[in-house]
Each structure stands twice: as C-alpha cells, then as structure tokens.
From TrEMBL:
One of its GO terms (molecular function) is hydrolase activity. Residues 1-21 form the signal peptide. This is Hydrolase or acyltransferase. It comes from Rhizobium freirei PRF 81. The keyword Transferase applies. InterPro entries: AB_hydrolase_1, AB_hydrolase_fold, Sec-Metab_Biosynth_Hydrolase. The keyword Zinc-finger does not apply. Residues 30-242 form the AB hydrolase-1 domain. Pfam families: Abhydrolase_6. Keywords: Acyltransferase, Hydrolase, Signal, Transferase.
Length: 252
C-alpha cells in the first residue's frame, strides 16, 4: 500500500481522535438530584456558581414516591440535555443517580453527603448499618410517608445554616415515601463510571463513616468538608469546586 496514503490516513485518524477527546472533555451539563426531606431550592447558591462558570445546570424535582418514579423523573431531565451530563446526587439522590447513571450519556457521578448503594442495597439498610444520633423523623397519618419535624429540622439537617434558611428548608421539605427508602437498587453505575464523593464530616443524617466507607468501596475521589447534611447550601463554593473538577475529569 502507498506509504503516503498511510501517512495521510494516520494523520486523519489522529486528528479525529484528538477532536473526539477534546469534545468528550467538554462536559457542561450538570443534572442535580436533590435528596429526601428537602427539595431542589436549597441548591440555588451552588447552581448560581456553576451557571456563572459556564455550566448548564438543571435540578430534578423528583416526587420521592418510589425509587422507580424518581429514576424516571431524572431520565426525563437527562433526555432534555444536549451532550453528556454529570449527575449529582445528595443523600437519597445518591440512590437515584446510582440507577439513572447507567445511561450512556452520563459521563460521571458526584455523591454529595449521599448514599452510594451496591446492588441489592436499600437506603434503610445502609442507614441502619451505621446509625447516627436520633433524628426526629415522623410518619404521616396514612403511614406511607416520612418527614422531619420542622421544629428540629435545623439541628437534624442543617445546623450550619442561618436559622431563616434552615427553617425554610424545613418548611419546603419533600416528604419521602417508605417505598423509596426500602427499594433495592440494581446494577450500580459507579462500577462502570467515574465517581466523586463529598463527605460532610458533621453530618447528622448520614453517619460520616458510612459516607467514607461507601465512597471507598466505589473507588470514588473523596473530598471532606466540615459541614452538616446540608453541605450543598452551607458550603456552596466548595461543593461547586468538586462538581467542576468532576466535570473536567469525567471526560478524560
């Protein structure tokens, strides 16, 4: 075969490979899945930082009626993105992104004070394996949903936030169905995708040692932040920095 043709072909292949790699590194879609007993409004400060830095941020407002419903809600948002996305999950949101992250258009997973389940594990099973101090969680009258008493929400969930902000989170919390907390996940996306984890060292909703153990098992890159479970709201700059690094590294 003509050596000149081979050289031209090699150059063309190298150029296309470089172009693909450069394109793959440009992950600009950030899809955030909030946790249970909260809604997406608490992510405003982190989202504003990411927006300012050129990212396209979308917050999934999942119903927390069942794990399947919440994965479906996340998939609907992912369907709207143009190009690869980085999935970010807080608390129960980690259960959701572990399932939804199996999509080929998800480039990586960021767990923020979140559950990182393995196959067959549930939130309630993980949470009870390393319990934290008693949280004032109550049942609704129908016995189907759980919530935190608004009077103790700040101490249990967001002790490092100003009182007015913590009180608003308590007032806007999304009640979580027992079905969502007992659902078992399938094949975890973190076994095939890069992952990052933020451990909130003052967390009173998830035992910080459990967060560390799950992140180690998943091989996640770990960042520890001295913060409550509401680390996304109390330390938005640090959480945004982790997300931005993940977005940059996920495409490599």
């Amino acid at each position: 075969m003509n050596t000149r043709f081979l050289s031209i072909a090699a150059l063309g292949l190298a150029a296309s490979t470089f172009a693909f790699a450069a394109q793959a590194a440009e992950i600009k879609n950030i899809v955030i899945v909030h946790g249970a007993l909260a809604d997406g409004s608490g992510w405003r400060k982190t989202a504003d930082i990411l927006d300012k830095d050129g990212f396209k941020v979308t917050v999934v407002q999942e119903p927390i009626t069942s794990l399947a419903d919440d994965v479906a809600a996340t998939n609907r948002v992912l369907d709207l993105q143009n190009g690869p996305s980085l999935l970010v999950g807080h608390s129960y949101g980690g259960m959701v992104i572990t399932e939804a992250g199996n999509r080929p258009d998800v480039a990586g997973l960021v767990y923020v004070a979140a559950f990182q389940p393995d196959k067959g594990e549930s939130l309630i099973g993980l949470a009870s394996s390393k319990p934290v101090g008693s949280m004032n969680i109550r049942e609704t009258k129908d016995g189907q949903y759980l919530y935190i008493d608004p009077a103790t929400f700040a101490a249990d969930f967001a002790a490092d936030l100003p009182k007015d902000e913590a009180d608003f989170l308590g007032k806007s919390q999304v009640f979580a169905s027992k079905a969502a907390f007992t659902a078992k996940v399938g094949d975890p996306a973190w076994k095939a995708k890069k992952s990052w984890a933020v451990v909130a060292s003052d967390d009173r909703a998830i035992n910080p040692d459990l967060e560390r153990d799950m992140a180690k098992r998943a091989g996640s890159e770990v960042t520890e932040i001295k913060a409550s479970h509401a680390v996304f709201a109390s330390q938005p700059e640090k959480v945004a920095a982790v997300i931005e690094k993940a977005a940059k590294d996920a495409g490599k």
